[in-house]
Specification:
The complex is a heterodimer of chains A (295) and B (252). Chain A is mostly helical and 295 residues long. Chain A contains 11 helices and no strands. Chain A has one domain. Helix content of chain B is 38%, strand content 25%. In chain B, the strands form 2 sheets. A 6-stranded mixed sheet of chain B has the order 6-7-8-3-9-10, sandwiched between helices. Chain B has a 4-stranded antiparallel sheet with strand order 2-1-4-5, with helices on one face. With 252 residues, chain B is α/β, with parallel strands linked by helices. Classes of the chains: A mainly alpha (295), B alpha/beta (252).
Chain lengths: 295, 252
């Protein structure tokens, strides 16, 4: 049972990561590969605050999300001032650099990882309740992103993606919108990280490396960008595949690279044969309504 | 007759190509000025310099006496500048009405916090903006296509929607870049009427246009540009009659 709970939680967290990344790359049109590092920041911030500073776990989780949000704004602000393209380059540096920092700091446990993270709910209420917490958060994130995409904000995001210069010509500031989208999406990744930390109670920098960027990107692209269910389908599929791979009895030294190849291979195959992903997005903004229809 | 927009000593070159040569231009409230000249004369570039899409090398732009030079494009729009594009540039993923709803100066939906926590404000804005957009579309004879996708409209109607979108903000000065190119029939008459009405409300209007008949019928004054410089100004009929300008225009 414990294995199954762990699996459900992992899948749930990846659905959250893919959905929040869909907000950034799909709806916001912002290309970044730093999503795992915000996942890591949330996990580490919540772990350090609760274990070493005795902050209650729920508060530490919220703080973890806020740390990821603040860090993402610190990354986006200078790069988006130049242009959208620089965000990709800056995010690569941020992803690689920050993990090196975590590996070399004492209070994060260095490359050996950070252990003995205080558990939450597991001891007092039971593991099932933590599974419930993750699933409720997952559903809330899916619905929230869907709602934002169909709200007045979604209308603005659609227009911004269509034509940035025309967007400016009606007095809209694309840069601040991009920063808000990036910050919000990254904050959700931070929350997922905090949820990870207090269940598995051990985090190490290796878990958040570049292959995770590829995994999350693949989930969104294969599932279908700018759709509610695309990232969900993508996360389920991409988490099931490696689990299936483990039954093939590859030695561990091969298993990792095979997974990496699988992710990038899948992205290439889909880019060629089904660029819209498994769940295709509509060309028209979904929040549009006919005259007289009430919201 | 109050001056609304003042352009003083504007210069801009890209490498060896000069797009603005010491340009001075004043637009007055309620008057329509036609900017004419051959292709490559710098007419659209002048619009880009005024609106802040492109920064000038030297010179200044004042709106109601306030310099705009340090403001970005989108900030200038909030000060009361408004413009359209030669190639329309509507938002293809949005229906006509949504192209307009998003274009008010105070659209609250562009703020994530407003959307998450300010439902009341959003609804109130939506009501007002929808009424305004419906009025503008009705005035242009586009009421029936409010829910259509812009890409499904004929080009002439798309041009009208472009002007409608530019009118959703509180414009003091309206820059129209070739509003008539590709426009014919009912849309032609609608465009003429709308531009007149906008000017009568006190907006300063400047039109870049190759359609001489349209410019002559509509504009109070013509300004002739060539090679980045203003060569002449006066009544459109005078400018059109000037043999020297005709030569410049047709390049004989």
């Amino acid at each position: 049972m414990e294995y199954l709970y762990g699996l459900v939680i992992i899948v749930g967290l990846y659905v959250i990561l893919a959905t929040s990344f869909n907000l950034i790359i799909g709806y916001g049109g912002l290309v970044s590969i730093a999503h795992p590092v915000f996942f890591a920041l949330g996990a580490y911030a919540s772990a350090v605050l609760s274990r070493d500073f005795a902050v209650p776990v729920p508060l530490a989780m919220v703080a973890g999300a806020l740390v990821a949000l603040a860090a993402s704004i610190a990354l986006a602000l200078p790069s988006l001032r130049v242009s959208g393209d620089y965000l990709l380059i800056a995010s690569i540096g941020f992803q690689l650099g920050l993990l090196e920092v975590i590996k070399n700091l004492r209070f994060t446990g260095g490359s050996g990882g950070f252990s003995n993270i205080p558990p939450f709910l597991i001891r007092d209420v039971g593991r099932e309740s933590y599974v419930g917490l993750v699933l409720v958060t997952m559903v809330a994130v899916i619905l929230l992103v869907r709602w934002i995409a169909r709200s007045d904000y979604g209308r603005a995001m659609s227009a911004m993606r269509d034509d940035e210069l025309a967007f400016a010509s009606i007095g809209r500031n694309a840069m601040w919108m991009k920063i808000a989208i990036f910050g919000f999406g990254s904050g959700i990744a931070g929350l997922a990280g905090a949820l990870y930390a207090h269940y598995f109670r051990f985090v190490t920098p290796e878990q958040f490396e570049l292959v995770q960027s590829a995994a999350i990107l693949t989930m969104v692209v294969v599932g279908g960008m700018r759709t509610t269910w695309g990232p969900v389908v993508g996360a389920l599929l991409l988490e099931a595949l490696p689990q299936a791979l483990t039954f093939l009895n590859f030695p561990p030294s091969i298993l990792g690279p095979v997974q990496g190849l699988l992710f990038t291979g899948l992205v290439l195959v889909f880019m060629f044969f089904r660029p819209q992903g498994l769940v295709p997005a509509q060309d028209v903004w979904r929040g549009a309504r006919k005259a007289g229809e009430s919201r | 007759m109050a001056s609304v927009l003042e352009v003083r000593g504007l210069n801009k070159s890209f490498g060896g190509i000069v797009v603005a040569r010491n340009v001075d231009l004043t637009l007055h409230s309620g008057r329509v000025v036609g900017l004419i000249g051959p292709n490559g004369a710098g007419k659209t570039s002048l619009f880009n310099l005024i609106s802040g899409v492109v920064k000038p090398d030297t010179g200044t732009v004042l709106l109601d006496g306030v310099p705009l030079d340090r403001l970005k494009f989108h900030q200038r729009i909030h000060r009361g500048l408004s413009r359209t594009w030669q190639h329309v540039r509507l938002f293809p993923s949005l229906p006509v009405i949504d192209n307009l709803l998003i274009a008010t100066h105070d659209y609250p939906g562009a703020g994530l916090l407003n959307v998450l926590f300010g439902r009341g404000r959003l609804k109130a804005h939506d009501r007002i903006a929808r009424a305004k957009a419906t009025d503008i579309l009705a005035a242009m004879g586009l009421a029936k296509v409010a829910d259509a996708l812009v890409s499904d409209l004929p080009y002439g109607q798309q041009k009208l929607v472009g002007v409608a979108r530019a009118l959703m903000g509180e414009a003091k000065c309206l820059l129209l870049d070739e509003p008539m190119a590709g426009v014919e029939g009912a849309s032609y008459a609608a465009m003429q009427r709308i531009v007149r009405e906008v000017a009568e409300r006190g907006v300063a209007v400047c039109v870049v246009e190759h359609n001489v008949a349209f410019v002559r019928d509509l504009c109070d004054e013509g300004v002739f540009m060539f090679s980045g410089a203003i060569m002449a100004r006066g009544s459109v009929a005078e400018l059109v009659r000037d043999p020297q300008l005709t030569e410049l225009y047709f390049g004989h």
